[in-house]
Amino acid sequence: MTAGTGPGETTPPAEAPQPELRRDPITAEWVILAAGRGKRPHAPGPAQPVDQPDEDCPFCPGHEERTPPEVCANREEGSCDRPGWKVRVIPNRFPLLVSGANRAGVERAVSPDRRPALGTSEVIVDTPVHNQPPWVVGPHQTRAMLEMYRDRILALKKAGRTTYAHIIRNHGAAAASSLEHPHSQLFGLPFIPPTIDVELDGFVFAHPGKPGCVLCDIIEEVEKDGARVILASENFIVFCPFASRLPFETWIVPRKHSLRFEKCEELPELAEVMTTVLNSFREKLNDPPFNYWVHTYPLHGESRPYHWHIEILPRLTLAGGLELGAGVWVNTVSPEEAAATLR
Amino acid sequence: MTAGTGPGETTPPAEAPQPELRRDPITAEWVILAAGRGKRPHAPGPAQPVDQPDEDCPFCPGHEERTPPEVCANREEGSCDRPGWKVRVIPNRFPLLVSGANRAGVERAVSPDRRPALGTSEVIVDTPVHNQPPWVVGPHQTRAMLEMYRDRILALKKAGRTTYAHIIRNHGAAAASSLEHPHSQLFGLPFIPPTIDVELDGFVFAHPGKPGCVLCDIIEEVEKDGARVILASENFIVFCPFASRLPFETWIVPRKHSLRFEKCEELPELAEVMTTVLNSFREKLNDPPFNYWVHTYPLHGESRPYHWHIEILPRLTLAGGLELGAGVWVNTVSPEEAAATLR
Fold this sequence. Notes:
globular; homodimer; alpha+beta; HIT family, subunit A; 7 helices; ten-stranded antiparallel sheet
């Protein structure tokens, strides 16, 4: 795995096109696109899961007693914490956010700048199969996983104590996955996270004085142009965004303007689309490490414009002092080239 | 190297204190502090430089012809592009930002959301010694490096075409360094980068209705409390910030309220301080990969409050979907514990 900003390349600069700046149409932030610099990012072989045989795996069927009691599961009724599930949800053993029921130990820390990390940390075990992510198992398993995402968000919303539900998937050790068995995570956050805050502002300010939704406009432009489209289905469009922050950044966006993922009625189709896209990553980029997350509207209220979507960020380059210290992303593969590779 | 957000830990949760939220006093963003979770981040051995013998190194003395002609150097007069230098500055062979002189190839791309990446990409070779960073060579070398940082920022300012000068140091392959030979980088950016923009706003809004500088206030609180202080010298204080984003995040702050690094008159003392702090990282944390950067005021104007400082971010954990997708940092070592370790 190599960095995008280092001076260590060996091919002569004459071969490289001049870098350009591209402004993200939602956040208004500039990204440096320095494509074709004689160095392609490369996956460090298959996504390098944490090496863990399934007999040691706490998420495998038959090992249910090794995890905290399950929150819920897609399974036959009445067989809690036993095999027979398709997707299983458990509390994170080391929660980053703790539920109200566990508040006692955290009450000490309350001040304006310091407070208990109240919220939810759940692990969604995506599939019973130890070493095959749902998109390898098939669309039916991806669908079961997506339906569980929806159900857990709806449960958080019903409980009423959480501000934002953030669903993530870390794939591969280099993308911060710490267990091989395929799993997603749900964080119920007690605030609107910064990235969503910036996006919500972006939806208001992206088109000053114009009505409509910036992401609906983007879908229209992306389809008209075609160069950044990876896949287009009846209800979804998959593309590399104009100001992609990293090589092969990919968004899955519903055509229907809608605030919230959990209201999506086309999850079977989304499962087909995700299965195709994630297998394309696997085949064309040698199973790279990646993260994806669902960007959806905060759990309560609906007064602001938004349009939910899924963002997939392969981890083929490392962030350095320019990204972390200045917040400036450097992308060494143009989104047009990335989409052509993944189509 | 392990992640902070994964569910893969094996010690029981009862041992871990409850996580808390801490709000950064400048940016007002919340960080999740989930310390003592039975898993300490660990350096993956010494900072794992790119393996490169010095005979292949383009930055070693005697190999000056392998780089573009030097921009400037701390050396005897009249011996350009030959050995005899203490610090040497060269253009990045694969610049992320290109100077006006190279504009021809980029003019094609001008639109409101797409423009040539005009600016500066320089490599500052910190020392002639291939495998010893300046803080190992000694304070005299660190001072020469810092003086070169200052001189290059002043040169950019004088040239008048750049908005922001961003100086970074990536140490170790996991921190995105691509060559073993110690080097820093200067990016002359044509915009105020997002991170600085957020800080500049923070200096205005952190203390609504109160006069004074939020970072001056922080220095006072940090010294009074003492628990997060790593080192205090006549003109500088080094500490782990209250809402540290990652384990062992460290700031070096001048006591004197000042907008700009390049106006600092105490660089010899700063060199002593940096040498001590970076050797403490090396000794106490087994030479971890890290990034540091100088946060200073934009090159032109002085109408807004600010207080320059250096931020050091060790790379002991990996960012996942919570950090990248939500902008929420997770720190598994409390800054109080981190400072006690580094003192």
